[in-house]
Structures are given as structure tokens and as C-alpha cells.
Amino acid sequence: MTAIQALILGIVQGITEFFPISSSGHLILIPYVFGWELQDLKFDVALHLGTAFAVLFFFWKDWYEMLTALLMDFKTAIVSKKLNTNILRRETKLLLTIISVSLPVGIVAVLLEDTIESTFRSSLFVGIMLIVVAFIMYAADRFARLNTQNLESNIFNIPFKKALLVSLSQILALFPGTSRSGISISTALFSKIEYKEAARFSFLLATPLIIGAGVIKLPDILESSTGMTPLLIGFFASFITGILSIKILLNFLKKHGLIIFVIYRIALGIAILVL
Questions:
Q1: From CA 55, how far away is CA 49, in angstroms rounded?
Q2: Which runs of consecutive H residues, i.e. helices, occur in 121-227?
Q3: Strand positions, DSSP E, the chain
Q4: Domain count, the chain
Q5: Which of 56, 63, 179, 236 has the largest CB neighbor count within 10 A?
């Protein structure tokens, strides 16, 4: 893999990981369009790790507050020799919720990894999933616009059951062409969470999963046939582009919703199936 290829793939990852148009799908399509050899999955994991660090960087205040609250509550529990969940800080509760609802998704990801890599990493499957999930996103967008009353506008108030449902929807994102942000934001909208908070919660939920995958795969990433230089270029390209993409999307969603992404997905999916 050349440095230019790594740079392009990193930029594509940084944009498509947060824009609900499927990063894994585009990482399959780009090599196909340019006639490149399809990169191994280890390189894709390195790119996803770059966007995970972009989320950590962009939402550093949220993560700092959650971790600080957790340590303070833990210290209080040690001093009092008693853990009272009723008096836990809201930041602690959110962090524990994110971790707990992410565990089943992580387990499923490990179990399905080999099957997905060997069976579903094809442009045909990507085209189909782009279109199928586009209709789900369209339905979610319409639902949100027709149900503008009593929307949850603070992620600290999201009930555990809704958080679990949004997290479990990420299982579908294991399949190329789905889009982790697309399916989780749509599920959040169906759960009556307003646009900006739906996106914010989606990104926070994805972080432990992506970082966990990156840590597990780190030895394989370092031994990847891609080479260290392309890996680093792709990582930093996805990291920097990812930060910009998050900022753009959070401002865009509240004003315009998901429709532009629905149109893009359907058009691209049809083009793939036709060609």
C-alpha cells in the first residue's frame, strides 16, 4: 500500500465513520473503484482506532467528567464501606451504562468477526445494505419530525432500556454498508431522543467498542503486511478528519436531519448494484 492510498482511505474513514453512510462499506468500495488490492481488515481496524481517538478528543470533557465522577463515587464507597447506587453522580451512571450496554455488542462482534470478514466484505453486499438501511434512516427521520414533543434532549436522562436498545443496534453495523452512526442514530430517534443528543450518544457508545477492538487487534495491526508508515498515515488522517466530521455533523443534523444521507445512500447503492 502506498502513502497516498493510506491517506485517501484515512480521510474516507474519518468522514464516513460519523456521517451515516457506512465507513466499512466505503473502505471496500474505494479500492474497488481505483483498482487497488483490498486492504486487510487489520488496516481497517487501525483507521477505526483513529476515529475512536477523534471521539475521545472531541468529547474529552464528557469523558473527563464521567471518569472523575466514577473515581469520586468509588472513593466515597470505600470510605463509607457501602455502595449506594441511588446517590451515584449522573456522570458515573452514564459511564457505567455505556460500558454495560457495550459488552454484549463486543461479544457478538468477536463471535461474528471471521464470518463477516470471509462472507460479507463485497461491493454487492455493501450496495444492498446501503439501500436497506437508508429506508430505516428515512423512517427514523420522519418519526422524529412527526414526534417533536417530549423528546429527550439530555443524554444523562436516557433510560437504561433505551441505551441498551441503541447499543444493540450497533450489531447490524458489523455488516459492511450498514453504518454504525446511521443505525444507532436512527434507533435513538425512534426512542424519542433529539437529533444532536442522538448523534452524541451514538458516538460515545461506539468509543469503547472501537478502542476495545483496537487494543485486541493491536499485535495484529503492528504485524500487518500493510507496513508501519501507511498505518500511521491512515491513523492520523482518520483522526484529524474525524474531528472535523463530528463538528460538522452535530451542527448539520439539528437543522437538516438525515434526508441528504438517505438520498446519497440510495443513489450510491443503486449505482453499485447496476455497475
A1: 10
A2: 123-146, 160-168, 180-190, 195-222
A3: none
A4: 1
A5: 179
